[in-house]
User: Which sequence fits this backbone?
């Protein structure tokens, strides 16, 4: 089932070949700064399973808490984060879950970088949590 997502202003549209169901919540300081919140809620898809169907993202190069190089792709019109790419996970895009309006079957399945979570953050209980990245 193909699923479409878009940024806040609609300039960037994303197509996933399969409906997302698993969200990984990342509490690293880089994700906190990029989202303005305590975590980034992410859907990981292989490059072959996803496509930008409208618009062109701007890219900000960063270094993740893991020390890996990280590209953050975002809309230059509204600033919405679209996806990230990291050398840690070649061949995949890490899409932001909120791009997709049909969230009925999506749930957080893992918390990562919880050691960086601010004291006021609410972590998802009942799912695996990792002080750093998944091992």
Assistant:
């Amino acid at each position: 089932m193909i699923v479409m997502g878009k940024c806040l202003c609609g300039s960037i549209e994303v197509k996933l070949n399969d409906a997302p169901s698993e969200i990984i919540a990342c509490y690293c300081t880089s994700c906190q700064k990029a989202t303005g919140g305590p975590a980034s809620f992410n859907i990981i898809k292989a490059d072959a399973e996803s496509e930008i169907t409208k618009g062109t993202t701007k890219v900000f190069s960063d270094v993740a808490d893991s020390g890996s190089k990280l590209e953050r792709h975002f809309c230059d019109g509204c600033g919405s984060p679209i996806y990230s790419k990291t050398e840690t996970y070649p061949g995949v895009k890490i899409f932001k879950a909120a791009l997709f309006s049909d969230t009925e079957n999506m749930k957080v399945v893992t918390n990562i970088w919880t050691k960086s979570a601010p004291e006021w953050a609410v972590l998802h209980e009942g799912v695996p949590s990792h002080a750093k990245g998944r091992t």
Observations:
- The domain at 3-116 is CATH 2.170.150.70 (Metal Binding Protein, Guanine Nucleotide Exchange Factor; Chain A).
- The CA atoms of residues 83 and 95 lie 4 Å apart.
- The chain has a mean pLDDT of 91.
